[in-house]
Design brief:
By secondary structure, the protein is an alpha+beta fold. It has helices at 41-50, 116-128, 137-143, 146-166, 169-189, 194-210; strands spanning 21-27, 33-39, 54-57, 62-65, 74-81, 88-94. A 4-stranded mixed sheet has the order 2-1-6-5, with helices on one face. α2 crosses α5.
């Protein structure tokens, strides 16, 4: 389904906000809120047609596509209206920073808080996997194939278990971080992402709910 076919613009209430609706822009992978902007009907249509976030600038009094001057585009994954049809969430995969102050988000300096750190690390692994194996441990590990990555997961799992049994909290956190990193490398080597794991967990949660 195309973006344009995913939303019924006729159901969006632009009148309530004098022709504008708020658009909460969210990273599709990390779920970090990147910015709050506004759209008129023309901006929403252009966003859906082009696949790049386009807004109505209240200060400029007209159309504004993010990235036209900075090169920091927001490639749109989905647009979802709220229950009243007077606001939308725009999920994007950013190219560069969303904030004009050269920050990832307009809401503070924090980068991909909470579990969003997993998706940020996956992006880093994707980039480093394409580097020279002489310069990157990730690329070197990827070059050795999934079996080597799986072996490292096993090794790090043992070290995490030992730290959990006899180490202090700092050691356990450090070993668990190594385990998660190598697990993500293994998933990448198998053309998978952590979202595939989350889908399984969600299905199990639904099954448990059905079981009472």
């Amino acid at each position: 389904m195309t973006l344009a076919a995913s939303i019924d613009i006729s159901q969006i209430d632009f009148k309530k906000g004098d022709g504008l609706i708020p658009a909460v822009v969210q990273d599709a992978d990390t779920l970090q809120v990147l910015t709050l902007a506004y759209m008129d009907e023309a901006a929403l249509r252009e966003t859906l047609d082009s696949g790049q976030a386009t807004f109505f600038s209240r200060s400029r009094g007209g159309r504004w596509r993010k990235g036209e001057t900075s090169g920091d585009f927001l490639n749109v994954v989905s647009v979802t209206p709220d229950c009243d049809g007077d606001a939308v969430v725009v999920k994007v995969r950013p190219v560069g920073n969303a904030c004009h102050m050269n920050r990832i988000s307009c809401f503070g300096d924090e980068d991909a808080p909470g579990v969003g750190r997993i998706a940020r690390l996956e992006r880093t692994i994707h980039v480093r996997a394409q580097a020279d194996p002489n310069d990157s441990w990730t690329a070197r590990l990827m070059a050795q194939g999934p079996k080597r990555a799986a072996q490292k997961v096993g090794e790090e799992g043992v070290e995490t278990a030992l730290a959990g049994a006899a180490g202090d909290n700092a050691e356990l956190a450090s070993e668990a971080a190594d385990l998660i990193y190598h697990l993500l490398v293994l998933l990448h080597a198998r053309n998978m992402v952590f979202q595939d794991v989350l889908v399984v967990l969600a299905k199990r949660a639904e099954a448990a709910k059905d079981d009472g």
